[in-house]
Task: structure prediction
Amino acid sequence: MWKFEELTKYFGPIKALDNVSFSLESGKIYGLVGGNGAGKSTFVKLVTGILRPNKGRILKEGKELIIRSPKDARKHRIAAAYQDFSLVPDLPVINNLLLNIEPTKFGFINIEKMMERASKILERLHTDIPLYKETVELSPSEKQACEIAKALILNPQLLLLDEPTNYLLEDQREELFKILKELKNTTKTTIVFISHRIEEVFELCDEAIVLRDGKLIDIFNLREASMNDVIKAMAGESRAMIKHEHFLSTAPIQVTKKISEKPLLSVINLHVEDKVKGISINVRRGEIVGLAGLMEQGQSKLLRALYGLLPYQGTVLLGGRKVKIKSPHDALKQGIVYISGNTLEGVFLLRTIRENISMIINLKRGIYKLINRKMEEKYTSEMIKRLNIVCKSPNQPVLFLSGGNRQKVYLARGLTVEPKVLLLDDPLKGVDVMTKRELSKIIKELSRDRAILFFSSDVEELLPIATRILVFFEGRIVGEFTGKYMRKDLILEASIRGKHL
Result:
């Protein structure tokens, strides 16, 4: 039995966790759910010693634990896979998996034993990552698998998983769920599973613990509760009247707009490394062209190349005029903006909202010009209102914002240059269902006078807003879906088979 009593954590004036108390039984899987900023990740970091609580106690079998560091947590057999990854980029995979727990023989590190333990855990996750590959070179799904493996290898009694399926491929997700159920049943491990995909929580977990604004709201037995019950608790009284179907629906979001006849962006026979192979796409002003398919089939590489982050071969036309994009500076000059789903790539956490939003417009004015504070405040105020960024003030560091609001700040910065083309690279990943719906509507409205290419690893994010959907498979487009054929089952089948039936 694990018990958490009055756990409280402040970041300056922000209450990230506010007197949270509950108990966890052995041999159960608990879903920890709530909107962005509810306190879920803060809870994980308190329990694993990354953060220290301002108040509160953690007890195991009635005995208080003193956890001042991750080392203390490991000593008490607590392990976690973190949403932001705890991997050391410059170390090989094998060293990351066994960092600080290396097996020894006669006082020396036992390489043979290390290889055996690391190989076994990766095999269980259906991942064949080379053990001596540097972690910085791994794809997002490989990093996610390593992060989970790093936690599982400790054989923990309390396992905390913060958005562990964000980048996993479907077979890896299924294998992870099998492993978690096995741990629950055979070793009686207590598991805390955080996911913004509420259907995953119902598929895997026994109970759901709901946090909102840092407070414990309710605990549900998932054999008795409905999805609507849980989502109402997550949303709060002000939104409780809204049915959960409103957030999860794939019905189109209606925005009146006119699609131009001529393409604004044309990509002709584009090649990027060995991942994008002869792609040709036309996107008209007013269109949102969805890019679907399994992860890492070339969608992100295409978008990054169009923003000048990767070299490409082929032709890019903007408004019928040939352009060459060798860097993000070139892209911005042409009115092309890229937004990644990984806010760590795009926002500066210790900088304020105002500094983050006005960064591009300040750079465009020139590095030798003094910062125009009035202009910064004008743009920031407009964007906070336009995108409904929830914050204490424009001078609040981005670090203290929820994931969804960080994503809005990232988007706001791009919009300050009034782009012609938006490249969206899985921008709703890790965003709760309510913020996801809000951002989807914003994206739909932005498409009125822009061309948008939107990759999502979750096809249900594309269905309500895309004009048409292109399916990628091994770097090629294998299907295009429009109108009544924009259906999840058809798109997923094309994604798996690699062809449009």
Observations:
- Residues 424 and 454 are 5 Å apart (CA to CA).
- The chain has three domains: 2-248, 263-335+419-501, 348-418.
